[in-house]
């Protein structure tokens, strides 16, 4: 899944989304060594979302009078809004690893200092903790607090012995990256046009994914995830979160959004 790692002055970086997701969204992993820092960055048109998956980082954001900082730990994160200026610093201890996800509408500008002529002195808000309960576990919709984004980012947790529905999407494209645990993924065939068709699950391709590996499901592809252990993944997708056709489901759920799963949602 990963492209070739590139060494940077602050650590390493690699792209996570494969060719099937080209042009749809950015999905990358960054390693930041203790005491090292990225350049100051700004995106004139793009939103970006960052989630820490190992260690701790300090986020420094340019404000009208200097910079402000905040520290983020495992599975914490923030949004970098268009025009804001920020850099990421590795703190003491082990190297920090974080996921960057976002839109790909324009260019990223970098500098050694926080001054950019067209930048906006604005904060980087924390990710949402909006939680969706599932029969097999839960999802946290990190981007629920930012409207009208061209991407969505989730944290998915599934408990051992459970499985997702056998599903497909008409428009939604998604990429998953495992953070903890191990999952079996069934995929490799396109969904039939007939929604009453019976799917032979045994005909699907089986792959196993552990930490720091993942997969992409394009629109129309049948897929199911089975938790070999308790597992956690980060999923980026295009924004059509209610676009779900369930061909088989252990809880008997129908297609689309299940409102009862959102009853405890918060943001």
Q: What fraction strand? A: over 45%
Largest sheet: 6 strands, antiparallel
Provide the succession of SSEs: EEEEEEEEEEEEEEEEEEEEEE
State the end-to-end distance. Answer: 31 Å
Mean pLDDT: 94
Class derived from helix and strand content: mainly beta
Total DSSP E strands: 22
Tally of alpha and pi helices: 0
Q: CATH class of the largest domain, anyone?
A: Mainly Beta
CATH architecture of the largest domain: Sandwich
CATH topology category name of the largest domain? Jelly Rolls
Helix share bin: under 10%
- Spatial strand order of the main sheet: 1-2-3-10-5-8
Shape designation = elongated
List the helices and strands and how they pair.
Elements lengths: L5 E2 L3 E5 L10 E7 L7 E4 L4 E7 L2 E7 L2 E7 L4 E4 L5 E5 L5 E7 L5 E4 L18 E5 L2 E5 L10 E7 L7 E3 L5 E7 L2 E8 L14 E5 L4 E4 L3 E7 L3 E7 L7 E4 L19
């Amino acid at each position: 899944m990963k492209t070739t790692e590139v060494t940077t002055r602050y650590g390493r970086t690699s792209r996570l989304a494969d060719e099937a997701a080209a042009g749809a969204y950015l999905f990358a992993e960054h390693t930041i060594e203790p005491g090292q820092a990225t350049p100051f960055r700004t995106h004139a048109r793009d939103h970006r979302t960052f989630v820490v998956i190992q260690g701790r980082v300090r986020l420094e954001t340019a404000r009208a009078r200097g910079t402000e900082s905040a520290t983020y730990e495992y599975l914490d994160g923030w949004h970098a809004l268009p025009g804001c200026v920020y850099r990421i610093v590795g703190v003491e201890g082990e190297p920090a690893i974080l996921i960057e996800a976002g839109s790909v509408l324009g260019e990223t500008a970098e500098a050694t200092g926080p001054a950019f002529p067209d930048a906006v002195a604005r904060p980087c808000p924390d990710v949402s903790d909006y939680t969706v309960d599932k029969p097999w576990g839960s999802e946290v919709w990190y981007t629920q607090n930012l409207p009208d984004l061209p991407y969505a980012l989730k944290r998915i947790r599934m408990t051992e012995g459970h499985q997702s529905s056998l599903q497909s999407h008409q428009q939604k494209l998604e990429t998953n990256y495992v953070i903890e645990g191990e999952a079996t993924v069934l995929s490799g065939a396109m969904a039939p046009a007939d929604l009453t068709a019976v799917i032979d699950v045994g005909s699907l391709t089986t792959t196993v994914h552990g930490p720091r590996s993942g997969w992409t499901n394009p629109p129309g592809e049948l897929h199911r995830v089975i938790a070999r252990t308790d597992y956690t993944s980060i999923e980026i997708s295009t924004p059509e979160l209610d676009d779900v056709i369930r061909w088989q489901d252990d809880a008997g759920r129908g297609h689309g959004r299940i409102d009862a799963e959102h009853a405890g949602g918060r943001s």
